[in-house]
DNA sequence: CTAATATGCAACTAAATGGTTGCATATTAA
DNA sequence: TTAATATGCAACCATTTAGTTGCATATTAG
């Protein structure tokens, strides 16, 4: 009973460790975060992106490759250029993941509270 | 008019690029994410953490150091051991940051919608 | 067609990362 | 006091990363 296009549709699939590694690794660089922000706000070609940063075109190209591997951006061929578009889905996944972390912490606090109310220390 | 303990209180200060780099870099490793989860759920000494992973004590110790530098965990001396406690604040900061990314995307969609409603294509 | 533009990719380098082992130190237990 | 436990830290190593330059290819403009 696996949905027919479970792999392609990506309807909120759980991310595996390697995928999460790539996402956070990709976000751990200020230039790449900037590229994600720009391309979430508006599409841009690699050349247009490269104009903004004090590094070679090839370096920016590599950053885009890292972001694409993490599915944080899409690279869409248009004539001789490649349009880069930020992918809000992957951002949401990462956010959700951090939400789970928060939940774990919340669970601990609840347990501590319950303990304090129900069972005063025996000392 | 800077609040007296602006640096120590950390009342939702904005994170700078280097800090964000460290946070995401620290989260880009499955072992470290696991350590954060465990120590958000319950405190643990470094030895206790090290028992869980198939690597040397020193390796786990290094992972903890990386997490501490990112302020994702605290290291609290207790007798001969160091108690590690996950820091939910930093997780929240990271989550918020990703929230800003989502907002940027939302803004773009709003602009596109406004354009479509107000101004049918001239072609 | 020719020139200019946009991209892809390989090879190289310096620095950072993630692991190891070995040893020193501090604390607790017997 | 002595032994066991918990940690800190340095030195080393293999791999990855982030940048570079140079060159090849594809597309568009004149």
List the topology elements.
The structure is a homodimer of 123-residue chains.
Chain A: H1 6-9, H2 17-27, H3 30-41, E1 44-45, H4 46-51, H5 57-69, E2 73-78, E3 81-86, H6 88-118
Antiparallel strand pairs in A: 1-3, 2-3
Helix pairs in contact in A: 2-5
The first copy, chain A, binds a DNA duplex (30 and 30 nucleotides) through helix 5.
In short:
Chain A has helices at residues 6-9, 17-27, 30-41, 46-51, 57-69, 88-118, and strands at residues 44-45, 73-78, 81-86. Chain A has 123 residues and is mainly α. In chain A, strand 2 (73-78) and strand 3 (81-86) form a beta hairpin.
What does this protein structure show overall?
Two copies of one chain form a homodimer. The first copy, chain A, has 123 residues and is mainly alpha-helical. In chain A, helix 2 packs antiparallel against helix 5. Chain A has helices at residues 6-9, 17-27, 30-41, 46-51, 57-69, 88-118; strands at residues 44-45, 73-78, 81-86. In chain A, 63% of the residues lie in helices and 11% in strands. In chain A, a hairpin with a 2-residue loop joins strand 2 (73-78) and strand 3 (81-86). Chain A is elongated, with a radius of gyration of 21 Å. Mean pLDDT of chain A is 89; it is low at 1-9. Chain A contains six helices and three strands; from the N terminus they run αααβααββα. Chain A has a three-stranded antiparallel beta sheet with strand order 1-3-2. At the A-B interface, helix 2, helix 3 and helix 6 of A face helix 2, helix 3 and helix 6 of B. Chain A binds a DNA duplex (30 and 30 nucleotides) through helix 5.
């Amino acid at each position: 009973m696996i949905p027919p296009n479970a792999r392609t549709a990506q309807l909120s699939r759980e991310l595996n460790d390697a995928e999460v590694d790539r996402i956070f690794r990709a976000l751990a660089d200020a230039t790449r975060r900037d590229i994600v922000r720009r391309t979430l706000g508006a599409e841009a070609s690699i050349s247009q992106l490269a104009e903004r940063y004090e590094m070679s075109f090839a370096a920016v190209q590599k950053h885009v490759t890292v972001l694409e591997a993490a599915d944080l951006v899409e690279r869409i061929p248009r004539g001789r250029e490649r349009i880069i578009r930020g992918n809000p889905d992957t951002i949401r996944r990462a956010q959700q993941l951090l939400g789970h972390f928060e939940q774990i912490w919340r669970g601990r606090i609840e347990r501590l509270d319950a303990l304090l109310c129900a069972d005063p220390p025996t000392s």
